[in-house]
Automatic annotation (TrEMBL):
Residues 111-439 form the Proline dehydrogenase domain. It comes from Strigamia maritima. One of its GO terms (biological process) is L-proline catabolic process to L-glutamate. Belongs to the proline oxidase family. The lineage of its organism: Eukaryota, Metazoa, Ecdysozoa, Arthropoda, Myriapoda. This is Proline dehydrogenase.
Length: 462
């Protein structure tokens, strides 16, 4: 017999089968407590100096003037002061606030803190592309990046039972080649044929000739084959170490190729579970169409599907490129439009999970309202909010008042953390600051909670 309970998220009356009522009641009890956490609960495990640093940096990053000129200021300061003196300023401030570290020891410390709080690491190796390098130098850099990725997979395997590693395709192969292949992917069938072709190369070590790629030169064909061999090593290491690989999205002009490579790796390695994931950027007007096609392909090819859903990190650059090259802006016109697209994509994925499709999703969001809506959808679909198929993620160093409640309620939650040297991470810090203005400016609640915690500690001390 069905029972009726009040919904604490929207004050409506919700009907659920009797067998499910206990799970729902437990969930609401946990959620209502933890999403209304006070500063004592959110920050009690944080050292006072870390709270002061977070308050200072989040406040500083809320000023547009600072954000707009931050990269120029930092690179100039590095040139004037030198690496050592610049590091003395950066490491205890911005670097330690947002970056995992640059060696095994610092990475272990960061992951240890997260594990203690029931939060899992989602590491991003910094691999910024050098477009001025020669072809030989680029190949050497791609091989060096491969070594870093394999090493990082081994480190993560030894430090965390549930870790992910984010990989940029342009850290493994030429961006120009990525774009050239992308221009050939004009429809669903072409993308599927290429994904199967690339998957075969991952398994056999040889890329067969295809009419789809007839515009590639012999050198470009060899470069693509070498790149696929690097991805094969990454996929094999992922399977051995049990660490999932998230293929990052980049610019719109590249994304069809990136998704095709991700799908090829899924065909090769996602037979039993989702080890390889793609990324969907919901600031794109075509986001729902993209993920619908990828889902259909995964179903057709009978592979487990993994996806990270984000709003996107290249919005300003994409708008400039569209204007410069005189093509339609691919980005949703408003923030609300992006928010609506994000929730539509999430709804689509959760419906697929409800339909027993083998899919794992990470919903990367800092928006508390969106999280409540998503969790309500999970309950409406009678899904288990603690299922390993359903995951959330936020950026390291931000939104603790969001991450901590989720972690304490038993939801699987990740922190996305860059891993690299100070110089390597400067472009990342700048891009995150510029593209996440709304998040940083909206961190007023977090800053208020930080200040309340600091005042309470000062009262206790004196």
């Amino acid at each position: 017999m069905a029972k009726f309970i009040p919904c604490s998220l929207c004050d409506s009356i919700v009907c659920y089968p009797g067998f499910y009522i206990e799970v729902i009641m437990k969930f609401y009890a946990i959620l209502d407590v933890h999403l209304l956490m006070d500063h004592r609960t959110s920050f009690r495990d944080k050292p006072t100096l870390e709270l002061m640093r977070a308050l200072f940096i989040l406040k500083l990053c809320s000023y547009d003037t600072f954000v707009n000129h931050s990269l120029q200021m930092m690179t100039t300061a590095e040139k004037i002061l030198g690496n050592r003196l610049f590091g003395l300023f950066m490491r205890p401030t911005f670097y330690n606030q947002f970056i995992a570290g640059d060696d095994r020891k610092s990475l272990a410390v960061t992951i240890g803190k997260l594990t203690k709080a029931n939060i899992h690491p989602m590491i991003a190796c910094m691999m910024e592309e050098d477009l001025t390098a020669s072809e030989q130098q680029q190949e050497q850099k791609y091989n060096n990046n491969l070594y870093r990725i394999i090493t990082c997979l081994e480190l993560l395997s030894s430090m965390s039972k549930q870790a992910c590693l984010q990989v940029k395709v342009t850290g493994i192969m030429s961006p120009k080649l990525v774009v050239k292949i992308c221009e050939k992917i004009t429809d669903y069938e072409t993308q599927k044929k290429l994904a199967i072709l690339f998957a075969d190369a991952l398994k056999t070590g040889t890329l067969k000739k295809s009419s789809i790629l007839n515009t590639l030169s012999d050198n470009e064909y060899l470069a693509l084959e070498r790149a696929l061999m690097r991805f094969a090593q990454i996929g094999t290491a992922s399977k051995i170490e049990g660490v999932r690989i998230l293929i990052d999205s980049e610019f719109v002009s590249m994304n069809h190729t990136l998704n095709t490579i991700a799908m090829a790796m899924m065909i090769a390695y996602n037979n039993e579970k989702a080890l390889i994931w793609c990324t969907i950027q919901c600031y794109l007007k075509s986001a729902l169409d993209i993920i619908t096609e990828l889902f259909n392909m995964a179903k057709e090819l009978k592979v487990c599907f993994g996806v990270k859903i984000v709003r996107g990190a290249y919005m300003e650059q994409e708008r400039k490129l569209a204007k410069m090259n005189n093509y339609p802006d691919p980005i949703n016109d408003t923030y609300l439009g992006t928010e609506e697209m994000y929730l539509r994509v999430v709804d689509f994925v959760l419906e697929q999970i409800k339909g027993s499709f083998k899919c794992t999703v990470v919903m990367a969001t800092h928006n508390e309202t969106a999280i409540r809506v998503i969790l309500q959808k999970v309950i409406d679909l009678e899904l288990d909010f603690q299922s390993p198929q359903i995951n959330f993620a936020q950026l390291y160093g931000m939104s603790e008042q969001v991450t901590m409640p989720l972690a304490k309620s038993g939801v699987t939650v990740f922190k996305s953390i860059p891993y690299g040297t100070i110089t390597e991470t400067l472009p990342y810090l700048y891009r995150r600051a510029t593209e996440n203005r709304s998040i940083i400016k909206g961190a007023r609640k977090e800053r208020e909670m930080l200040w309340s915690e600091l005042k309470d500690r000062m009262k206790l001390k004196f």
